[in-house]
Amino acid sequence: MANDAKRSAGPQFSAGVLMTSAVLVGVGAVFAMAGLAVGGSHVVLATRRWVKQMDVPPSEVAKAKWAQAKAAAGAGATAWQGGRPAGPAGVS
Fold first, then answer.
1. 61-65, 67-71, 76-80: which range is least confident on average?
2. Every domain of the chain and the residues it spans
3. How far is CA 1 from CA 5, 69, 84, in A?
4. Is the pLDDT of residue 48 over 80?
5. What does the alpha-carbon distance between residue 2 and residue 33 come to, in Å, rounded to a whole number?
6. How many whole angstroms separate alpha carbon 17 and alpha carbon 62?
7. Under the phi-then-psi rule, with left for phi > 0, alpha for psi from -120 to 50, and beta for the rest, what region is 52?
8. How far apart are alpha carbons 36 and 41 in whole angstroms?
């Protein structure tokens, strides 16, 4: 009966195997972080080169698109509040 009590106490783990697996997971994490650093730095440098080669900087494109969006929203609001459609509806 004493052997049955020991067996039902839970699983028996080997400390050596668990330590080995923990070390392997740690080493794998270090390699993964190194890979992410190398790949990430390459992406950042390539993006910087691409932006430098552009004729118009992205900030200027964003400003122009924002101005277009504001003008379109204003025109839409004016047309909606005035009760007039923006253009001929259903006319070919």
1. 76-80
2. 18-79
3. 6, 81, 92
4. yes
5. 49
6. 56
7. alpha
8. 8
The residue behind tokens 């277009």 is 68
Helices of type H across 1-92:
2-7, 15-53, 58-82
| Dist CA 41 CA 45 (whole Å) | 6
Question: What is the pTM assigned to this prediction?
Answer: 0.53
- Conformation bin of residue 69: beta by default, left when phi > 0, alpha when psi is -120 to 50: alpha
Q: Check the CA dihedral 3-5-10-16 and report its sign.
A: negative
Task: Tell me the pLDDT of the chain averaged across its residues.
Answer: 87
- Please give the structure tokens belonging to residue 11: 């699983």
